[in-house]
Amino acid sequence: MELKIDRDICIGAGMCVLLAPELFDQDADDGRVIPKTAATGAEQQAALAEAVDACPSGAIWLEAQS
């Protein structure tokens, strides 16, 4: 699965940063999501999935790689 982000629809709620701070950050200028690193290991994969589910605007999602 590949992480996808649409910063145009991000509302800066910060749920991704709260749930997976090692994977996400927020832009200091506009508060929108910034990916930090790819998820490695089961614990980070679980945090990533939780962050995706919690995003109120749907700005982050996982997509099957082709």
Question: What is the mean pLDDT?
Answer: 95
> So how many helices?
2
Radius of gyration of CA atoms, rounded to a whole number: 11 Å
Q: Based on Cα principal axes, name the global outline.
A: globular
Strand arrangement, largest sheet?
1-4
State the low-pLDDT regions, or none: none
Q: Biggest β-sheet: count, sense, barrel?
A: 2 strands, antiparallel
Structural class: alpha+beta
**Which strand-content bin applies to the residues?**
15-25%
The span between the termini is: 9 Å
Helix content: 25-40%
**Total DSSP E strands:** 4
Series of secondary-structure elements, N-terminal to C-terminal: EHEEHE
Write the layout of secondary structure elements.
Blueprint: E1 2-5, H1 15-19, E2 24-26, E3 33-35, H2 41-54, E4 60-63
Antiparallel strand pairs: 1-4, 2-3
Tell me about this structure.
This protein has a two-stranded antiparallel sheet. Strands 2-3 form a two-stranded antiparallel sheet. The longest helix is centred in the last third of the chain and has 14 residues, at about 40-55. It has helices at about 15-20, 40-55, and strands at about 1-5, 25, 35, 60-65. A hairpin with a 6-residue loop joins strand 2 (about 25) and strand 3 (about 35). It has about 70 residues and is an alpha+beta fold. It has 2 helices and 4 strands.
